[in-house]
Design brief:
It holds the Pfam family SMC_ScpB. InterPro entries: ScpB_csome_segregation, WH-like_DNA-bd_sf, WH_DNA-bd_sf. Keywords: Cell cycle, Cell division, Chromosome partition, Cytoplasm. This protein is α+β, with helices and mostly antiparallel strands. The chain folds into 2 domains: 18-101, Winged helix-like DNA-binding domain superfamily/Winged helix DNA-binding domain (Arc Repressor Mutant, subunit A, Orthogonal Bundle), CATH 1.10.10; 109-229, Winged helix-like DNA-binding domain superfamily/Winged helix DNA-binding domain (Arc Repressor Mutant, subunit A). Helix 2 crosses helix 4 and helix 5 (113-125) crosses helix 7 (143-152). It has helices at residues 3-14, 31-44, 51-55, 64-75, 113-125, 130-137, 143-152, 174-180, 191-196, 211-215; strands at 49-50, 80-85, 88-93, 109-110, 128-129, 155-157, 169-172, 228-229. Residues 199-215 have low confidence and may be disordered. It is rod-shaped, with a radius of gyration of 39 Å. Helix content is 40%, strand content 12%.
Length: 231
């Protein structure tokens, strides 16, 4: 080959396009690194993710199933385990340790004016029927109010009256006494004590609103509001 031919061949080699390495699929890392990558995705995801969703984020050629199997084996018996929900995978608290995540919450609700008034009427007039409660209050007694007081454990059903229709009566319970710090219903403050403590005005009350007096025994003396209910 002449020098001219050699020069031509050299130019031909130099003019060939270089391969585009950027378009070549990345080489899959070793299985340990694949496991780390899958673990990171599981940890970061709030919702379970599928094997297909994991695969599209990994380098080409990764074995998602093998990585998941290794993670499952490594977490077995630990506080966090690999769980499956349908087609998705997630890292979750071990089922037998779920009780540690539970927290008992006491929800505090405030009794309505009608409820505290009804409770006071029952406390001072027990045993008392619903009709008698309505007569004292001057308005109808809501069934929901009575049910709420029963659910709280502060009142219960008493004996039925021997009058026509044999209406049921309502009485207070030991839980009621315990909540208000009373040894017995005989320790309920009288109207004189209520007036002396400033909870009642000294002037006589209209009979139609006599319930205002008895309900004052259960109002917070600082705020004048009903007590909190802690079921």
């Amino acid at each position: 080959m002449s020098r001219t031919d050699e020069a031509a061949a050299s130019v031909a080699r130099d003019s060939r396009p270089e391969p585009d390495l950027s378009s070549a699929p990345p080489i899959a890392p070793d299985i340990a690194q694949q496991e780390r990558m899958v673990e990171a995705m599981l940890f970061a995801s709030a919702a379970p993710i599928t094997a297909a969703e994991i695969e599209v984020r990994l380098p080409h050629g990764c074995d998602v199933a093998a990585a998941l199997a290794r993670i499952e084996a490594r977490y077995a018996g630990r506080g966090v385990v690999l769980t499956r929900a349908g087609e998705g995978y997630a890292l979750r608290t071990a089922p037998d340790l779920g009780f540690l995540m539970e927290r008992e919450i006491v929800e505090t609700r405030r009794l309505s004016r009608a409820a505290i008034e009804t409770l006071a009427i029952i406390a001072y007039n027990q045993p008392v029927t619903r009709a008698e409660i309505e007569e004292i209050r001057g308005v109808s007694a809501s069934r929901g109010t009575l049910d709420q007081l029963i659910e709280m454990g502060w009142i219960r059903f008493g004996r039925r009256r021997q009058s026509p229709g044999r209406p049921v009566t309502y009485v207070t319970t030991d839980d009621f006494l315990d909540h208000f710090g009373l040894p017995s219903t005989g320790d309920l403050p009288g109207l004189g004590e209520l007036r002396a403590s400033g909870l009642l005005a000294s002037r006589p009350m209209p009979e139609a609103r006599a319930s205002d007096g008895v309900q004052a025994a259960f109002l917070d003396p600082q705020t004048g509001r009903p007590p909190d209910e802690t079921p």
